[in-house]
Specification:
This protein is α/β, with parallel strands linked by helices. Helix content is 39%, strand content 16%. The strands form four sheets. Strands 3-4-5-2-6-7-1-8 form an eight-stranded mixed β-sheet, sandwiched between helices. Strands 9, 10, 11, 14, 15, 16 and 17 form a seven-stranded mixed β-sheet that branches. It has a two-stranded antiparallel sheet with strand order 12-13. The chain is elongated and about 110 Å long.
């Protein structure tokens, strides 16, 4: 006859195994049983999509209003990830816009979860938490075989120069990557995450406030192609129990009250309904981002409308039979880039091939992007690209370094075999109409904008750097009420650098026909021409293409 104690022990083991199998496929059950936690319905939906997706999408991004509990759920999912699966198979990586955010928010909550599990275990009410969480933002444990310390979770915000390689060599069979405050993270960090999400059972979840347009986070929600790969969610303040009246803990009034206090309050939302609206009642950017969980619309001073940018991505121009011109923006020896764009009848693309060129007797290679080169080497790169393409024009931003490069291309003997005309563009020069455009820079921006609006420009939708620059450029009016584009110096903070790509595209799109084509070419010797003197002045000072 089987001893009752042995029988009870065996049944307990069977029950534990069954429960563990359930927990690995049901995060909500694990969270309820182990952490004593429940979530409101919108968060339940999101948590299930992150942990056990049924649509094959292992990546999830959530844009959210303020105070929706998004960092809370990210911490709980990571606790589940390293607790419900074998330690040698599971790894959870956290990143955010700074170490402080990781330490004070996500890892504080992880420590709280660890402490709760430890206290419950002492009372015989649950499993002991694994290992320990160190001040180095690591969750470690002693390996059962005595071979030393293992790691199941770590938090890291690598330096910008180390981002792409930062997570290499850290993947496990089940790797979870969680981004907190995802809206402010650079694209290289997304690349680093992808490098470790190689297993079928790996997952990615990113959460953030939709404060900024023209970011990788923004593109996830505005590029329709992302929907095939990502679960995309929005949490509005109106989804919260403080507004819906949802009862999450029907049998525990204390937990219900604590949860409600942790979420954005009805009073705060009602105040913002009054305070964050214009005199016409239209919600402002703060209301959209902080209350509705939506990206702000175009600001009142965005220069390139998003509809025009979208149209330029959807426009397809046949390049057959078109001539080739290139637009160049040159950077000095700082962090900005020198860039070459190729225009074939309105089809404008970054020159992305790698070709050889002669740099004073040394054979080197160039693409359409480089940095930290002197004037002579930059001129040789441009000449090689123009020659390779058979370009008819090379249009150079002649302010600063570009002025010297343009002069070299025009005068130096080594470029005498050039097949192209060199055209200088100086944005600080006077515009054709100073009552309309503050300077030539504003006029040239407006020229590109008009061409895009008319469907005459075909831009690469995958050129996200250019798209970001287009969407973030702003303008104001000068004392004449003429359009004035925000200065490059002021735009550097928003862009993280100068709008090099946009400037090269603007040069590539200029109408230079009055400069490179003889306006009197149709006349023969001896023909008589009558012209009003004022028309002569206008043709010299304000004709198409002026000033360049």
């Amino acid at each position: 006859m089987l001893d009752s104690a042995v029988f009870d022990t065996a049944m307990a083991e069977i029950s534990d195994r069954s429960r563990n199998r359930l927990y690995r496929t049901d995060f909500l059950a694990w969270s309820s049983d182990v952490l004593g936690r429940r979530y409101y319905s919108k968060m339940n939906e999101i948590a299930t999509a992150i942990t056990t997706p049924t649509n094959g999408k292992i990546r999830t991004a959530v844009k959210s209003s303020n105070g929706a509990g998004k960092s809370f759920i990210l911490s709980d999912i990571q606790t589940w990830w390293v607790s419900a699966f074998p330690a040698d198979e599971a790894l959870a990586i956290t990143s955010a816009n700074g170490r402080d955010q990781i330490e004070r928010v996500v890892y504080k909550m992880l420590k709280d979860n660890w402490g709760y599990m430890a206290s419950q275990h002492k009372l015989g009410k649950g499993p002991a938490p694994l290992g320990w969480i160190s001040e180095k933002l690591e969750w470690n444990y002693d390996k059962p075989d005595g071979s030393g310390k293992g790691t199941v979770a770590f938090g890291k915000r690598p330096a910008d120069q180390d981002i792409v390689s930062s997570f290499q060599g850290t993947r496990k069979r089940r790797t979870f990557v969680g981004f907190d405050e995802m809206g402010g993270l650079p694209e290289d960090l997304f690349t680093a995450a992808e490098a470790v999400l190689t297993g079928d059972e790996s997952r990615f979840a990113g959460i953030g406030n939709p404060d900024r347009r023209a970011t990788p986070f923004h593109r996830l929600f505005t590029d329709s192609r992302q929907a095939d790969e990502w679960n995309l969610f929005t949490i509005s303040a109106y989804d919260l129990p403080t507004m819906t009246g949802e009862i999450v803990y029907p049998n525990d009034s204390q937990k219900q009250e604590a949860m409600m206090k942790g979420l954005t309050s009805r009073r705060w939302i009602e105040h913002k309904e009054r305070a964050w609206r214009s005199s016409t009642g239209k919600p402002d950017a703060r209301f959209l981002a902080k209350v509705l969980g939506e990206f702000p619309g175009e600001t009142d001073n965005s220069f390139f409308p998003e509809d025009d940018v979208t149209l330029s991505h959807e426009t397809n121009i046949d390049i057959a039979g078109t001539s080739t011109v290139i637009g160049v923006d040159l950077a000095a020896m700082g962090e900005d880039e020198s860039v070459v764009y190729v225009n074939r009848g309105g089809h404008i693309r970054l020159f992305d091939k790698s070709i050889k060129y002669d740099d004073g007797g040394n054979e080197r290679k160039t693409t359409g992007v480089w940095a930290k080169e002197d004037e002579v080497t930059s001129a040789r790169r441009i000449h090689a690209i123009a020659t390779y393409l058979g370009a008819t024009e090379v249009r150079v931003d002649a302010a600063g370094l570009g002025g010297g490069v343009a002069t070299m291309l025009y005068r130096l003997d080594e470029f005498n075999n050039k097949c192209y005309v060199v055209v200088r563009s100086v944005g600080s020069e006077m515009s054709a109409d100073r009552n309309k455009w503050h300077n030539a820079r504003a006029q040239n921006h407006d020229n590109l904008k008009s061409l895009m609006h008319e469907g005459l420009i075909d831009l690469d939708p995958d050129d996200t750097h250019l798209s970001d620059e287009l969407l973030i450029i702003t303008y104001d009016f000068d004392k004449r009420r003429a359009v004035q584009i925000t200065s490059k110096y002021d735009m550097k903070g928003a862009l993280g650098g100068s709008p090099d790509r946009l400037d090269a595209v603007i040069n590539a799109a200029l109408d230079t026909s009055p400069l490179v084509n003889d306006p009197n070419g149709h006349l023969n010797k001896g023909d008589h021409v009558n012209m009003d003197p004022w028309d002569v002045m206008d043709s010299e000072r304000g004709g198409p293409g002026y000033p360049m």
